[in-house]
């Protein structure tokens, strides 16, 4: 009998594929491309971390771990969160080790969302947020930030988006794609509204280690916020461990227990050797994190100054490893800019429009590349701009 129906769930059929992938796929077919497109460190994971994972395999630690992760790792995470960010979580029942921050976001959404619940998503943002809200049965209410405010969420626009169905605010800082960092005062204004309306915050702080101008403040460390925050963090970015697929959640017991139910059925546990590597990363990897951060800071300063010199306005982002220059002076849309730049000068960047409201008119450039690559990219972008100015 021939297949006559689609079988695919409507929620998935209606989902748009990630706009980032389209550019990577095109760039992959070309030779000599300088890529500022990828959102991952160009560093290889610290050797002692790799060695710890290898050693765990040599010692035969190849079974499942506890659903929430190795207790030794959860203890290290608890210590790390308290010493770095002044937030205290119990390793017994408030920390879950996940398969990347990606899975952490997914279980957070699924644990709190009933059909029709609204989650406020601040854009431009990481491309997976709105789709994961929708997959969890919720409604993503998107609000756009703008270049004029350095892409900071304004308290008035946040409050205006709240309805009787709002359950949570999903916030990411330092931000992907803008690099925007929120300081304690910014966070306090947001926290006051969250408390006033009795909401939750899902705080994606995966770039917390990459804050260049002042120490990162976790929103959970503000008064009255620990009990209404689900913290998302992980090893991918600060520790240069993207391929290890290791993240974690920190949340009050009740929410953690709900997330753990989903995690135990959908994932069982995160990879065992990766967890042994992560223990080493937390115990002895901080010097390397600091040295990578120093390098990123130097590159950030170079690339921001270069874009401004080329006439592409670029704010100085406080964290992550992205800059988000305006391309409005060229008269092109961000998609046209990215496509023409790739085809003519072989530089891959991501159009700001794929990151949602507020992203049109900008491009995302990752500076997690060597200085030589960055200099080459800037030279080619300069040629691209010059050609347009001459016509
Ligand atoms: N959150 C943000 C803001 C990101 O930019 C990314 C990856 O690019 C993730 C989460 C996913 O991280 P992980 O590799 O830990 O799944």
From TrEMBL:
Domain of life: Bacteria
Top EC category: transferase
Cofactor: pyridoxal 5'-phosphate
EC number: 2.6.1.-
InterPro entries: Aminotransferase_I/II_large (IPR004839), AspAT/PAT-like (IPR050596), NHTrfase_class1_PyrdxlP-BS (IPR004838), PyrdxlP-dep_Trfase (IPR015424), PyrdxlP-dep_Trfase_major (IPR015421), PyrdxlP-dep_Trfase_small (IPR015422)
A GO biological-process term: amino acid metabolic process
Domain Aminotransferase class I/classII large intervals: 32-381
Family of this protein: Belongs to the class-I pyridoxal-phosphate-dependent aminotransferase family.
Protein name (record): Aminotransferase
Annotated organism of origin: Domibacillus epiphyticus
């Amino acid at each position: 009998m021939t297949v006559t129906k689609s079988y695919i769930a409507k929620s998935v059929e209606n989902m748009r594929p990630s706009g980032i992938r389209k550019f990577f796929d095109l760039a992959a077919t070309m030779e000599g491309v300088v890529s500022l497109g990828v959102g991952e460190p160009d560093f290889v994971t610290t050797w002692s971390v790799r060695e710890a994972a290898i050693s765990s395999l040599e010692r035969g630690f190849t079974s499942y771990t506890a659903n929430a992760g190795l207790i030794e790792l959860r203890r290290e995470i608890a210590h790390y969160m308290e010493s770095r960010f002044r937030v205290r979580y119990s390793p017994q029942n408030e920390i879950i080790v996940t398969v990347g921050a990606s899975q952490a976001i997914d279980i957070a959404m699924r644990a709190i969302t009933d059909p029709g619940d609204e989650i406020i998503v601040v854009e431009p943002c990481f491309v997976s947020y709105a789709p994961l809200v929708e997959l969890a049965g919720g409604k993503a209410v998107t609000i756009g930030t703008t270049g004029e405010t350095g892409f900071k969420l304004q308290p008035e626009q946040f409050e205006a988006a709240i309805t009787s169905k709002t359950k949570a605010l999903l916030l990411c800082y330092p931000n992907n794609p803008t690099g925007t960092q929120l300081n304690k005062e910014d966070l306090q204004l947001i926290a006051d509204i969250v408390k006033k309306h009795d909401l939750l915050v899902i705080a994606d702080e995966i770039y917390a280690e990459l804050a260049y101008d002042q120490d990162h403040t976790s929103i959970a460390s503000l008064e009255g916020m620990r009990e209404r925050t689900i913290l998302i963090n992980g090893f991918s970015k600060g520790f240069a461990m993207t391929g290890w697929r290791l993240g974690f959640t920190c949340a009050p017991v009740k929410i953690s227990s709900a997330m753990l139910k989903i995690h135990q059925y959908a994932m069982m546990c995160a990879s065992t050797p990766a967890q042994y590597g992560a223990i080493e990363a937390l115990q002895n990897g901080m010097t390397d994190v600091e040295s990578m951060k120093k390098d990123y800071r130097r590159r950030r300063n170079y690339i921001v100054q270069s874009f401004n010199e080329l006439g592409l306005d670029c704010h100085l982002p406080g964290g992550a490893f992205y800059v988000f220059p305006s391309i409005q002076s060229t008269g092109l849309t961000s998609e046209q800019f990215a496509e023409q730049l790739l085809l003519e000068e072989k530089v891959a960047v991501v159009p700001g429009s794929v990151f949602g409201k507020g992203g049109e008119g900008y491009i995302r450039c990752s500076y997690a590349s060597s200085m030589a690559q960055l200099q080459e990219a800037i030279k080619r972008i300069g040629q691209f701009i010059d050609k347009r100015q001459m016509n």
